[in-house]
Specification:
Helices cover 4% and strands 32% of the residues. The protein has 183 residues and is mainly beta. It has a domain of 100 residues: Sandwich (Jelly Rolls). The longest helix has 8 residues.
């Protein structure tokens, strides 16, 4: 029996069959044929010099070209190269510390982050970070559009899982003010 994913992703055709076509009323997802799947080896991506900081951003998924639902980039930075405290009006920002250490602030909250730590910074709240620990920090940064009402998601697969599936575990003691309400 086929597994059916919300949104019509139950197409079990061979990978070389090409995209499904959508017709009005058929219940299928419209395919944007300008966006193609891809894989990038470690260290690969579209590299841009972010001139205000003098730091290279290695873009893995770009907002303008590659995905349009989120952006993902990697950077290696050191003390003195951090951005000033700033605010994003339209997107949430997620940092995953790959290597090194950083201290993040978001409003009145402060988070110490070492390798393997994820930090979520919601839109509209002044935030920033400082590299700590004396060496470089390698960060994976994800930005995603935040809905205006601050409540709804964008109707994606994980939103359906969060809404429809039982919560099996939650962080024992998330940092102050972090994480969604499991209720």
């Amino acid at each position: 029996m086929p597994v059916i994913f919300p949104g019509g992703a139950d197409d079990l055709r061979p990978p070389n069959a090409g995209p499904r076509r959508s017709a009005p009323g058929d219940g299928l997802i419209a395919v944007d044929e300008t966006i193609r799947p891809y894989a990038l080896p470690a260290g690969e991506g579209w590299t841009y010099l972010f001139s205000p900081l003098g730091v290279d951003f290695v873009v893995k998924i770009g907002e303008q070209r590659h995905g349009r639902r989120l952006s993902v980039f990697e950077l290696t930075t050191r003390a003195g190269e951090e951005p000033p405290v700033h605010t994003h009006a339209t997107e949430d920002e997620i940092f995953y510390v790959l290597d090194g250490q950083a201290a993040f602030t978001c409003g009145e909250e402060r988070f110490e982050a070492a390798g393997g730590t994820l930090v979520f910074l919601p839109r509209g709240i002044p935030h920033g970070y400082r590299i700590t620990g004396g060496g470089d920090a390698r960060l994976l940064v994800i930005t995603a559009p935040a809905p205006d009402d601050g409540v709804r998601g964008w109707g994606g697969f994980i939103g359906n899982v969060e809404r429809d599936e039982p919560l099996r575990a939650a962080p024992a003691s998330p940092a102050a003010g972090s994480g969604p309400d499991p209720a």
